[in-house]
Amino acid sequence: MARHIARAVILLMAFSPLAAGAAIIYNSIPGPLPPNVPSLGFEANASSELGDLIQFAGSNRALTQVTLVMSDGALAANFPAFPGAGGPTWNHPLTLNLYNVDNSGLNPAPGTLIATRTQTFAIPWRPTADPTCANPAQWRAGDGICYSALAFTVTFDFTGTTVPNQIIYGLAFNTEHYGYAPIGAAGPYASLNLGLAQVPPSSGSNPFPDTAYWNSANAANYADGGIGGVGIFRRDTGWTPYSGAISFSTLDALGTYSAPTLSPLALLLLALGLPVVGLMKFR
After folding, report:
1. 3-state helix, strand and coil shares in percent for the chain, rounded to the nearest 5
2. How far is Cα 273 from Cα 254, in angstroms, rounded to an integer?
3. 128-161 residue pLDDT tens
4. Which residues pair with 73 in a beta bridge?
5. If residue 121 lies in a helix (H) or strand (E), which one and from where to where?
6. Is the pTM of this model over 0.70?
């Protein structure tokens, strides 16, 4: 019997999934996420892309996911004909670009594209206004504070992407008048913003905390008044204390192995030293 039990233990170890998890190599998302955060609107600021130069922690560079904080100020009641107006969310495609850092010039610049992902996300409508707020157009959250928009997160799948120690990332999406392919029609995306953090990252670092990388069609938006170019994704200054609220995750040291699971009957048979062929189910 001891031999049978030992065999069962060995087999169970062989078929037990490893406790794989995520290792965060950069994180500037506040936790817990508040009802809303400071943000930059793409339509309001004539923007096509916004991001930052960041430095990753640790040595693992095999990305799995990238999560960003967004902020939406659109009310469903204001867009009754827009798809999704009758439900809790509306859909919009967002693109996240990851660039190498080009250090050949005076200042770091976006280099070659490492990877890009475009995914369509369900965007939550902002809650309805509360007339008891000092600004009756705002909504009141569970913390008792009134807000103009709602913070939420979106997560991009970057599985299979390996990054260097430093990158420049940029979020891009289209609005009525701006973006790399303006939509040309009004919609709730006019109130869709990229969420901003106000504190240093808890993992990884921001080597140039006063800078951001921005593509705006408005010269006045840039600290240099547009001298360095308008309508191109480039370095900008004067962003203290704000940076993009974003998190980058990799696989932990245990990897992602997922083993077959065993039914209770199979476990009993293993304990008795009997064959379990045909009784495994894979997940």
Report:
1. 10, 40, 50
2. 29
3. 999 999 999 999 999 999 999 999 999 999 999 9
4. none
5. strand 109-124
6. yes
Q: Which of 12-26, 45-59, 187-201 is predicted with the least confidence, judged by mean pLDDT?
A: 12-26
Backbone angles phi, psi at 267, to 5 degrees: -60, -40
User: CA distances (Å), 117 to each of 43, 78, 128, 164, 166, in order?
Assistant: 21, 30, 32, 18, 19
> For 164-198, what is the HEC assignment?
CCEEEEEEECCCCCCCCCCCCCCCHHHHEEEEEEC
Q: How many CA atoms lie within 13 A of 75 on its CB side?
A: 11
Neighbours of 130 (CB within 10 A): 15
The pLDDT of residue 253 is 53
d(CA 270, CA 279): 11
Instruction: Give the sign of the dihedral formed by CA 153, CA 200, CA 194, CA 249.
Output: negative
Contact 154, 72 (CB under 8 A): no
Helices (H), the chain: 2-15, 264-271
Provide the sign of the torsion angle of the four alpha carbons 176, 177, 179, 180, taken in this order.
Answer: positive
Q: Distance between CA atoms of 234 and 221, rounded to whole angstroms? A: 12
Taking Cα atoms as reference points, which of 58, 59, 41, 64 lies closest to residue 115? 64
CA distance 113 to 148: 35
Token readout for 110 is: 């976006």
Buried b (16+ CB within 10 A) or exposed e, 176-187: eebbeeebeeeb
Question: Is residue 49 over pLDDT 70?
Answer: yes
